[in-house]
UniProtKB/TrEMBL annotation:
This is Poly(ethylene terephthalate) hydrolase. Its EC number is 3.1.1.101, 3.1.1.74. Keywords: Disulfide bond, Hydrolase, Periplasm, Secreted, Serine esterase, Signal. It catalyses: a butanoate ester + H2O = an aliphatic alcohol + butanoate + H(+); (ethylene terephthalate)(n) + H2O = (ethylene terephthalate)(n-1) + 4-[(2-hydroxyethoxy)carbonyl]benzoate + H(+); cutin + H2O = cutin monomers. It comes from Nocardiopsis flavescens. PANTHER family: DIENELACTONE HYDROLASE DOMAIN-CONTAINING PROTEIN-RELATED, POLYKETIDE TRANSFERASE AF380. One of its GO terms (molecular function) is cutinase activity. The lineage of its organism: Bacteria, Bacillati, Actinomycetota, Actinomycetes, Streptosporangiales. It is found in: Periplasm; Secreted.
Amino acid sequence: MHTKTPRTDIGSFPVSAPRSRSRLARAATAVLMAVGLSVGAAAPAHAANPHERGPAPTEQSVTAVRGHFSTDTVSVSSLVSGFGGGTIYYPTDRGEGTFGGVVIAPGYTADQSSMSWYGHRIASQGFVVFTIDTITRVDQPDSRGRQLDAALDYLVEDSRVADRVDGSRLAVMGHSMGGGGTLAVAEDRPELRAAIPLTPWHTQKRWSSLQVPTLVIGAENDSVASVRTHSIPFYESLPSSLDRAYLELRGASHFAPNISNTTIARYSISWLKRFVDDDTRYEQFLCPPPRTGIGTDFSDYRDSCPHGS
């Protein structure tokens, strides 16, 4: 059990309780995955990498509103234990085996609708995506981290699409306090394949023990979670040996991740493909890093390129 000392109030946000670690059931699932006993159809035999899903990517495919796969949704009741319910977006294709899973949390006072644009967009690229509601809209980052943790377990163990999800290939995303929760659950659950905190907010500034490949997305004009006190310190505190990147959206506000955004989609999809699916075909969209400055989408970009194979 991993716990942290409760924090004192900072600013206008109340504090959160300590967060929890993995469950025995999850460990057992990981063992089953390791010995090849996972449930679901086998991956396509033709793929050099058994986790590759979909055709070879292009600039057009990673920026498209919809990807290669047709998708459908499943609603999850708010009566579920551990989080506030939500919506699962999943590929309807049964011919390419199981897919990596991505759980996404909203920010302070928001609900899953603020994250809904990621659903079909990411799922259609070959992922099972779960946008969740939190138990209350004012839940703090560590609470949101625990709820992301519970939603990950629900997705692979109890959901109606559990047989479509590869429980050994999971990722988390979240906005604002949901981004802080993304960092928290990634620190506590090192077996995750990827984490993408979006304009994240957290009172904890150092994440030096985090072991999950992490893409931090900040916004230049964020007045809620200033990049100087949140996104940049979060990124810089990550281990230098970690696959990591920091993307800062030029001229954007704290709420940029709540609205359909091609730059966020392009880099999020590429990050998930690269680290959840081990798909090196997407490396081209991450390395070398993009130009920054006037006339670009980025006010800052930092990266650990080249990524490990």
